[in-house]
Amino acid sequence: MFAGRPRFVRNGILLMAVILTLWHLQLIPQRPSSEWTRHEHYMNHNASSSQYPEPKSSFNWSSINFRYPPHNSTRLPSPGRPLPRIQHRFGVEQPIAAKKQMERMLQVKEVFLRAWQGYKKFAWKQDALLPISGRGREQFSGWAATLVDSLDTLWIMGLRDEFDEAVAAVAEIDFGSSTSNRVNIFETNIRYLGGLLAAYDLSGREVLLKKAVELGDLIYAGFNTENGMPVDFLNFHSAKSGEGLVVEGSVVSASPGTLSLELAHLSQVTGDPKYYSAVSQVMDVFYQGQSKTSVPGVWPMNVNMMAKDVIHGSTFTLGGCADSLYEYLPKMHQLLRGGEPKYEAMSKMFLKTADRHFLFRPMLPKEDDILISGNVNVDEKGNPVLDPETEHLTCFVGGMFGLAGKLFNNADDVETGVKLTNGCVYAYRAFPTGMMPERIDLAPPEWKSHLPKGFTSAKDPRYLLRPEAIESVFYSYRITGRREFQDAAWDMFTAIAKGTETAYANAAVLDVTIDGGKLPLEDYMESFWLAETLKYFYLIFAPPDFISLDDYVLNTEAHPFKLTK
Ligand SMILES: *[C@@H]1O[C@H](CO)[C@@H](O)[C@H](O)[C@H]1NC(C)=O
Ligand SMILES: *[C@@H]1O[C@H](CO)[C@@H](O)[C@H](O)[C@H]1NC(C)=O
Ligand SMILES: *[C@@H]1O[C@H](CO)[C@@H](O)[C@H](O)[C@H]1NC(C)=O
């Protein structure tokens, strides 16, 4: 599709005609002041318009007789003081500037629609599209992961017919059977449950809530353990029997640490406190252990939920394996509107530790004032030692610092978030393809002499269609209002759209450090390409009060949950 762009640009008049037509078709509001009436219309719940078959699964997940009934007496807290404003107060935009962003937004939508059509044609109702060979693959139990993950993006982009068709398909998903006997609770929670909840919040379609409750009860079945901690992988058959499950000894901390937002929100929308109550037990374990680790404020990358041990361990990261455990601390504060003080306490302690031990200013040729988040290992003497390696997954940290800085009135944290975001933007620009590798080493400030400046190596040169960098660019834009973030996003988008394009959709790149020529691609398109990456790209060019960060909190798969007022 991008091959067609130069011709498109040459025909400037045609372009204008197209834009004006779209404008009149109300795809775009005619004035920034009447901001997006069509989108507001989408936001109106209209449950009566849902005429879908009664959802049915071959197993009723709420009918299990638990051997170990989960803790069920913790109630959702009532809200605390009103939260501070998160978003910058944007003024009315000049028509010329608005038009430019609108054009960008529509190009993002085109890339999305093309990939969605590829999925529909070759992998409909399967978990993922193989975007080069034009086939499908099951990866997450076979419940149409890409379809469920994309629902809210379809709605946000105004693709109403595609949305309706997808919701009809959701009604037919059977959560009573799985292509794998081991169900990944983390992925099921963030992609499927998160996707259903957000699509329900946006559209009000009852069938989505019913399916969310089915899945919520499936995840809840994972708490049927002696100590009330959830399993990492659900053995499908044992879970159905209710006989009781055994918690794994060692798991990555993000896994048990990333159930809170979805389960709390499920309790909010259903009024059934059991989901929140069960997950509160998990977060209490993290709360009690936070100051007792060898780097107080953060938890080791691996934790042992069987022993409720989140203290022992000497490897620490804010990136993959841990990331969303930290991401959800300020987000839980926001979702619960400050009603549970633990999340504020945990957030603040974590942010201080992250700032002190993990963030560094790499040595760069032009001495750009950016920050990078590295890893920390504890040496034999018990001292934390910085490992100046970073990865694409860690790029969410900038957005998290920004959001937390706003929530807790800390301007320094907001500025830190901007510098971290710029660190990832820098990393995109530093490579010839305009994309950041999956994993890189950097030169920390104390390395002064002979070493090459800046990046020392790309440990893993792939780009896997990941969203974390644009996620932070989006947060930084919405929080500070600085235009430069939209321009950075545009550079990133054009590089990614060009480098990942296949005949049917977009694919992961095997090496982004190559200069020139056709890039080697992998025949896989993760569902988060449609759920997250393209959603953030779309939203950064959309009018800023659309999916405002003061109205929604986004889960770690970019699914927006509506905040209660
Ligand atoms: C809601 O749905 C009904 C039935 O499809 C339709 O007649 C009505 O116009 C819709 N209302 C709104 C506000 O969209
Ligand atoms: C599932 O089981 C619960 C508890 O036994 C029951 O209340 C509910 O009606 C059942 N749902 C369906 C769809 O059969
Ligand atoms: C709540 O927990 C208690 C104690 O484990 C159990 O007896 C009871 O059945 C549970 N109630 C619900 C509604 O699950």
UniProtKB/TrEMBL annotation:
<feature type="disulfide bond">
    <location>
        <begin position="395"/>
        <end position="424"/>
    </location>
</feature>
<dbReference type="GO" id="GO:0004571">
    <property type="term" value="F:mannosyl-oligosaccharide 1,2-alpha-mannosidase activity"/>
</dbReference>
<comment type="pathway">
    <text>Protein modification; protein glycosylation.</text>
</comment>
<dbReference type="GO" id="GO:0016020">
    <property type="term" value="C:membrane"/>
</dbReference>
<feature type="active site" description="Proton donor">
    <location>
        <position position="438"/>
    </location>
</feature>
<feature type="binding site">
    <location>
        <position position="556"/>
    </location>
    <ligand>
        <name>Ca(2+)</name>
    </ligand>
</feature>
<keyword id="KW-1015">Disulfide bond</keyword>
<keyword id="KW-0326">Glycosidase</keyword>
<dbReference type="GO" id="GO:0036503">
    <property type="term" value="P:ERAD pathway"/>
</dbReference>
<dbReference type="GO" id="GO:0005975">
    <property type="term" value="P:carbohydrate metabolic process"/>
</dbReference>
<dbReference type="InterPro" id="IPR001382">
    <property type="entry name" value="Glyco_hydro_47"/>
</dbReference>
<dbReference type="Pfam" id="PF01532">
    <property type="entry name" value="Glyco_hydro_47"/>
</dbReference>
<keyword id="KW-0732">Signal</keyword>
<keyword id="KW-0106">Calcium</keyword>
<feature type="active site">
    <location>
        <position position="323"/>
    </location>
</feature>
<dbReference type="InterPro" id="IPR050749">
    <property type="entry name" value="Glycosyl_Hydrolase_47"/>
</dbReference>
<dbReference type="InterPro" id="IPR012341">
    <property type="entry name" value="6hp_glycosidase-like_sf"/>
</dbReference>
<protein>
    <recommendedName>
        <fullName>alpha-1,2-Mannosidase</fullName>
        <ecNumber>3.2.1.-</ecNumber>
    </recommendedName>
</protein>
<feature type="active site">
    <location>
        <position position="468"/>
    </location>
</feature>
<keyword id="KW-0479">Metal-binding</keyword>
<feature type="signal peptide">
    <location>
        <begin position="1"/>
        <end position="30"/>
    </location>
</feature>
<dbReference type="GO" id="GO:0005783">
    <property type="term" value="C:endoplasmic reticulum"/>
</dbReference>
<dbReference type="InterPro" id="IPR036026">
    <property type="entry name" value="Seven-hairpin_glycosidases"/>
</dbReference>
<comment type="similarity">
    <text>Belongs to the glycosyl hydrolase 47 family.</text>
</comment>
<dbReference type="GO" id="GO:0005509">
    <property type="term" value="F:calcium ion binding"/>
</dbReference>
<keyword id="KW-0378">Hydrolase</keyword>
<feature type="active site" description="Proton donor">
    <location>
        <position position="187"/>
    </location>
</feature>
